[in-house]
Amino acid sequence: xxxxxxxxxxxxxxxxxxxxxxxxxxxxxxxxxxxxxxxxxxxxxxxxxxxxxxxxxxxxxxxxxxxxxxxxxxxxxxxxxxxxxxxxxxxxxxxxxxxxxxxxxxxxxxxxxxxxxxxxxxxxxxxxxxxxxxxxxxxxxxxxxxxxxxxxxxxxxxxxxxxxxxxxxxxxxxxxxxxxxxxxxxxxxxxxxxxxxxxxxxxxxxxxxxxxxxxxxxxxxxxxxxxxxxxxxxxxxxxxxxxxxxxxxxxxxxxxxxxxxxxxxxxxxxxxxxxxxxxxxxxxxxxxxxxxxxxxxxxxxxxxxxxxxxxxxxxxxxxxxxxxxxxxxxxxxxxxxxxxxxxxxxxxxxxxxxxxxxxxxxxxxxxxxxxxxxxxxxxxxxxxxxxxxxxxxxxxxxxxxxxxxx
Length: 406
Hints:
alpha/beta
């Protein structure tokens, strides 16, 4: 039986969506603007990268072609390859959001069927009754922060006060999210996880997409650093996605990175975590070798989003893309006849854009495998077409949304 891989390069959008103006993102273009910055010499890092954006593996699959199809512009450094190796195109999000859960759920063929809740741009931003309930149920003396903030900055600002008071740092962003940061040793990692479970129950009526545990270590002298023990507590994913269909058919499922968290650990099979994207990529290669016939591997590589997109680090983002591209041939060489690998993204996060939040964009589709005939896919009307196509390839029941291009 054939196998399938869905690989999500978190936040690698390829041009503004038609409704981007309603999200304040008209003109955003993650890949295009990074490529422009590189061509202008703004992304040179001594000993790391120089010059135009260099993504030969992705470009050979059709990355330049899909970017041009999405925006009408060919990003500098990419090419109009005459004979792309993959099926190439882009997809449009139908869910009313630009965040991780809505993007992934729609990729899996079951878009969010409700409107997400958000916290206002006020201080405090969390409703008082929710904050009081969190303090009471979590046996806290209080909380710190309680505003919109970037995670690294607010930990740097309030880390000392947190360690002294043991009051957790709570904050949000333009996404449907509540983040809780606490020191792994002083506050306790399990206590942080337990507190996030309380917050998850309290936030369910508000339809908040994710509660994120943000553990960190360090001290006032040396500074603070977030650890790899992040954990996401998502709203239950919409029923009927491609993971559900694969589980119903008795297929093996391997989830890499934060896929298990995003889908609430429902039908996510064997879950594999890693310290960073290259570690996750190493583990993807091992998992692919172990994936039996008929199996589904679903991976998320988050560093581009968290380390570079939200921090508006254009040069770092470019270097991260190039690191991934340099590793891609090692994965492609492991694909067997009948395998299907789909590279995509869940939203944009243009590092040249104002603010620190995601951007509403099209996402790339590169579908490759031995025996997969390359062709243009144009613009797909929903991310859900990815899940529908994977289901068709695996000969399992279709998810509740999406149209297969296979």
